[in-house]
Specification:
alpha/beta; Aminopeptidase
Length: 327
């Protein structure tokens, strides 16, 4: 009887420890806003997306907001591009370069001829280095009237949030020492706000160089969501005539790796850098919050009006697609 009682106590202790472990695991998943038991989720991929951190996204966005101004015609535009390049390098993405281009813009009755800069961080693929998977976001910002973009253009949501997602994806990939099968490029595009010149220059060069671009994901304005209930958060995924299947695939990743709902309103799909990829024949998607921000191109577009847990969820989608399709 004594041995039986001892065995029962040991069994009870083991069961209790298992329950505590499971409970802690579930709590950890809840902290990251993800439940690993979702159908179809790949454990290898979940290890990456669980590292994506809302506070880190907030820190990156604050850093970008404090670069005043980020207007593409301001004298500090190259300094901003260099700062973003150096940030990628600090995160371990040593193969990061500035790709310069010369453009003419007509703004407020004046013609401007300027050098502009895309920031391109490349992680070379182990099997197919000439094939590219691209995630992009523009880093310049602007103000509508009233306002003077030459003085200040905070652009936290538009589009500090998108660039923050690039940096966070880069950080997580380097943390895990991930070597993709195909090459990955994380691109911070310059000169988007006036005429999407940065992505136009990149895609023109890509087409002339016969680059093999598998797809491009554009993250633009991905941090505004003011609904108090997380189950009501949605991401709008805009596609193009050649990327409907890619959108369906992205929606599956949303279901497997986030708690977001999905929207499909393509009204503004011509207003982001992904559009230039489509025009050159490449498959692309445009990720944007489905909630309409009242701070668009305003001085109130600051980190205090951003929702970084929401931004984290959207960032997970691009990260999951990159990792899963290159493992």
């Amino acid at each position: 009887m004594k041995n039986l009682k001892s065995n029962c106590l040991q069994s009870a202790l083991i069961i209790s420890l298992i329950m505590v472990f499971v409970s802690c695991s579930k709590k950890e998943d809840t902290v990251h806003g993800f439940t690993s038991t979702k159908p179809g989720a790949v454990p290898f991929v979940t290890t990456f997306i669980s590292d994506i951190n809302a506070d880190t996204l907030s820190t990156y966005t604050t850093w970008l907001q404090n670069m005043q101004p980020r207007f593409m015609l301001s004298a500090n535009r190259r300094n901003i591009a260099v700062s973003i390049k150096n940030k990628f390098i600090q995160l371990g993405l040593s193969n990061t370069v500035l790709d310069s281009f010369y453009i003419t813009n007509y703004y407020k009755d004046t013609t401007y001829n300027t050098w502009q800069y895309n920031v391109i961080a490349t992680i070379t693929g182990s099997l197919y280095p000439d094939s590219l998977f691209i995630v992009g976001a523009h880093y310049d910002a602007i103000l509508n009237v009233p306002g003077n973009p030459w003085i200040a253009s905070p652009g936290a949501d538009d589009n500090g949030s998108g660039v923050a997602s690039l940096l966070e994806i880069g950080r997580v990939i380097k943390k895990r020492n991930f070597v993709p099968k195909s090459s990955i490029q994380l691109i911070a595009f310059g000169a988007e706000e006036l005429n999407m010149d940065g992505s136009n220059d990149y895609t023109t060069k890509a087409m002339l160089g016969s680059k093999k671009i598998k797809w491009m994901l554009n993250n633009d304005m991905i941090s505004f969501e003011n609904h108090p209930n997380q189950p009501d958060w949605k991401v709008n995924i805009m596609d193009y005539a050649n990327s409907a299947a890619l959108r369906v695939s992205a929606e599956n990743y949303v279901s497997m790796y986030t708690d977001l709902g999905k929207a499909h309103d393509t009204t503004a799909n011509k207003e982001g850098d992904s559009y230039n990829f489509y025009l050159k024949g490449y498959k692309a998607l445009f990720f944007i919050s489905s909630a309409s921000t009242p701070y668009y191109h305003q001085m109130q577009d600051v980190v205090g009006n951003c929702n970084f847990p929401y931004c984290r969820e959207v960032t997970k989608v691009s990260c999951a697609m990159l990792v899963d399709q290159n493992r």
